[in-house]
UniProtKB/TrEMBL annotation:
Residues 1-15 are annotated as: Disordered. The lineage of its organism: Bacteria, Bacillati, Actinomycetota, Actinomycetes, Micrococcales. Gene3D superfamilies: Aspartate Aminotransferase, domain 1, Type I PLP-dependent aspartate aminotransferase-like (Major domain). It comes from Branchiibius cervicis. PANTHER family: AMINOTRANSFERASE, PUTATIVE-RELATED, ASPARTATE AMINOTRANSFERASE. This is Aminotransferase class I/II-fold pyridoxal phosphate-dependent enzyme. Pfam families: Asp_aminotransf (PF12897). Keywords: Aminotransferase, Transferase.
Length: 424
């Protein structure tokens, strides 16, 4: 697309700026695009990397277990050993289950509500309770809490993890704050990585609620985009060392490693938490899909097999992330007052902050130009971005060329929305 953005932005000449952006937008609409940047899904090429799974496993026994039969609620040992190594936790603290880690998160919260956590009484009996939510964050975390009637208190997400001082101040006196979400590595959508010092403070901080939980959603712990293989802080050991062994519960899955619809999910926590979890799980299952566990074990063979596989994913999606950076820098780099964005080194998202008060307008303009973006505010509790500034970009699913064209379109919409606002 031609760049119409080389006129200096307001306050120099808001009228000319607006006219230039309108004209660029009209050109864009005339192109009749149709793109979807809404969800962080692996693209078809990424799914093809795991195609061999469709012809595995080659046997039906593993470690003397007939995987076709009932049993083994905690998941297949060989697969647990492999992924426990990757996530740096003890096998005895590590469970493998079905395809969606979101289900395990829901299980844990429902169990806490109805039965009480391992170190507390049922949350449903304790009046209104709250969770802290680093923002921007993952919309389904918020939806789950809202569904359970758990109030959400936003805390800022920073480049090196959540604003821990804010968290410490909130949790120390308020026993109704029962926990917090955290995506520690390459967070959705900010790409933030929670540094070890912040993790240590979260593990050690005094909380008024004696059964405070950190739901440590390590969905992107292995999803590096560069040669930097960021190591996730070891929250389980940190919490144990600080006298709060039952505080963290970690989640992960192979949704963005093998098949998003047919992978394996994981839960890791203190052995006491794991036994608590399995006791409740046993009310609804006699065992997980161990055939799928064995299929994954045969496919990867060992931890290095997973690491090599993740480098293949990076080779496919890194150019898409590069294209996002390139287009945003070219089109919006001259306007830091209008747009800033993250440069993640892993995960699935770029978080774009536009001129406050214009994010919804940008999404609407993009929609009218044929580009579907995640709804403005989606990354905030109750869908409410108080500044109306944040937009989550998910570049993995479209092709590289589509990402480029779609990002050009987004840039045009960002500039028009800003120009409208600045022109009053
Ligand atoms: N957690 C986060 C932070 C995610 O971004 C996603 C996927 N978008 C999930 C969990 C979902 O994981 P699963 O497929 O294992 O349910």
């Amino acid at each position: 697309l031609p760049s119409h953005s080389d006129i200096a932005p307001p306050p120099d000449d808001p009228g000319a700026f607006l006219a230039a952006q309108r004209s660029a937008y009209d050109d864009l609409v005339a192109r009749g695009l149709k793109f979807d940047l809404t969800r962080g899904k692996p693209g078809p090429e990424q799914l093809d990397l795991s195609e061999a799974l469709l012809t595995l496993p080659t046997t039906h026994t593993s470690g003397g277990v007939d995987v076709r039969n009932y049993g083994g609620l905690e998941g297949l040992l060989g697969l647990r050993e492999l992924f426990a190594e990757l996530f740096g936790v003890q096998v005895s603290q590590f469970v493998a289950q079905g395809n969606a880690s979101l289900t395990l998160m829901k299980d844990v919260l429902v169990d806490c509500m109805l039965k009480g956590p391992v170190d507390g009484t049922p949350w449903k009996d304790q009046g209104p309770i709250k969770f802290l939510c680093p923002v921007p964050g993952y919309d389904r975390h918020h939806a789950l809490l809202e569904w359970l009637g758990i109030d959400m208190v936003p805390v800022p997400m920073q480049a090196d993890g959540p604003d821990v001082a804010a968290v410490e101040a909130l949790v120390k006196d308020d026993p109704s704050i029962k926990g917090m979400w955290l995506v520690p590595t390459y967070a959705n959508p900010s790409g933030s990585v929670t540094e070890a010092d912040k993790a240590a403070r979260l593990a050690a901080m005094p909380t008024a609620a004696s059964d405070f939980k950190i739901l440590w959603d390590n969905a992107y712990g292995l999803h590096h985009l560069t040669e930097v293989e960021t190591k996730t802080a070891d929250i389980i050991s940190l919490a144990a060392a600080n006298g709060h062994p039952d505080r963290p519960i970690m989640f992960a899955s192979t949704s963005k490693i093998t098949f998003a619809g047919a992978g394996v999910s994981f839960l890791a926590a203190s052995e006491r938490n794991v036994q608590w979890y399995l006791k409740h799980l046993g009310m609804g299952s006699i065992g997980p899909d161990k055939v799928n566990h064995l299929r994954h074990l045969e496919f990867f063979k060992d931890a290095d097999g997973v690491r090599a596989h993740m480098r293949k994913h990076a080779a496919i999606i890194k150019p898409k992330f590069d294209a996002v950076q390139e287009v945003l820098s070219t089109r919006l780099g001259a306007y830091p007052q209008i747009a800033t964005w993250t440069e993640p080194i892993g995960g699935y998202f770029v978080s774009l902050d536009v001129l406050p008060g214009t994010a919804s307008r940008v999404v609407q303009l993009a929609k009218e130009a044929g580009v579907a973006l995640t709804p403005a505010g989606a990354s905030f509790p109750y869908g409410n971005d108080p500044q109306d500034t944040n937009i989550r970009l998910a570049p993995t699913f479209p092709s590289l060329e589509e990402v480029r064209v779609a990002m050009e379109a987004v840039a045009t919409c960002v500039l028009l929305a800003a120009a409208e606002k600045l022109a009053g």
